[in-house]
Protein: Cyclopropane-fatty-acyl-phospholipid synthase
Organism: Arenimonas oryziterrae DSM 21050 = YC6267
Amino acid sequence: MSSPAESLSATTRSEDVYGSLTRLLRRRLLEGLSGLRGGQLRIVDALGETVVGQATGPDPVRATLQVHDGGFYRAAASNGSVGAGESYMDGLWSCDDLVALVRLLVRNRDRLDRLESGMARFGGWAMRMLHAFRRNTRRGSRKNIAAHYDLGNPLFRLFLDENMMYSSAIFTRADDTLEVASRRKLDRICEKLELQPSDHLVEIGTGWGGMALHAARQYGCRVTTTTISKEQHALASERIAAAGLSDRVTVLLEDYRDLTGTYDKLVSIEMIEAIGHQYLDTYFDKCASLLKPEGLGLVQAITIEDHRYQQALDSVDFIKRHVFPGSFIPSVSAMVEAAGRAGQLRLINLEDFGPSYAQTLHHWRRRFFANLEKVRELGYDERFVRLWEFYLCYCEGGFIERSISDVHLLLARSGNRREQFLPGL
């Protein structure tokens, strides 16, 4: 048994681990997290263990956050949730269940919002200024897209499905594989668009050619698709040539704003998030101008709740800062209103399948970490790995809690009077 002097000495050494400022910031953070609803968070650091929240109610979540360095508290205080994410990248803390932690924080967004106050407001102001300089002009869009999509095709091959679809699949069974769910999504799109061999489909946002290949191969239509990612353009062109479909699929390296001509059908799969909110009207005006009077268009989009849309536009989160520069997440009402302002488009069907995105992200994360050694062999360091772990968990937790979702907007030009039969709905 230790003597009183030894106990006092141990306590003093423990407190010396953190300076007075760090201890103050730690106390403020713990006070801000007190009273969490819908779950329980256990925080372990050099000063001991603190448990906040109550694991009561339906589906409570639990997580343990281990602080390895007091710099975590300083980062969270100075840059809010983005600072906390950055300190995760730097290895200053870890968590036994990062998805559960995100879910708990989403359930307590009012408290999370308060963590963005104080000193964090200055960090937020600086990040908003930086984000403003990432505006999606033609030149800015190329830089923003390259920052993520040109990381290297070998990296994306390690965790995407065999068709390289970097967008939500549609799961309907618990035992669906990612490949099955991804094909289901593509078929759902083609069926909604009533694709026929006589159709010419224009695609805004090629990805790695998965949609174009599927539409041409399975439905026999012609496809013109465009991307501004050099890496995506190169691989999509290679895949289409290998499939013997170069006579039916044209891959362009052009900004969507420069597309010309008219088409029977249009598709754009999770590309709208990359245009920037300032160009929402521009995007839908272009969609309308590309469609024939009787044409149909489908937009797949990640969405945010309508009541949080403006707040999201006015802030910069971890995804905008470190994953998709220049991006934004639209709300359903913002898109429908912009389509209406285009004057030639009307919404004829809306399908929400947000829970499927959580499952898609889970599959991606599992594959990414199953191939972790290959990721490292490609030259990506541990900070990059932690960034991607945080990104994938951050998004998965958001989709599970439905703070973000994924939808299909089926749009018709004013000359389209056909009644829509929507298979699978």
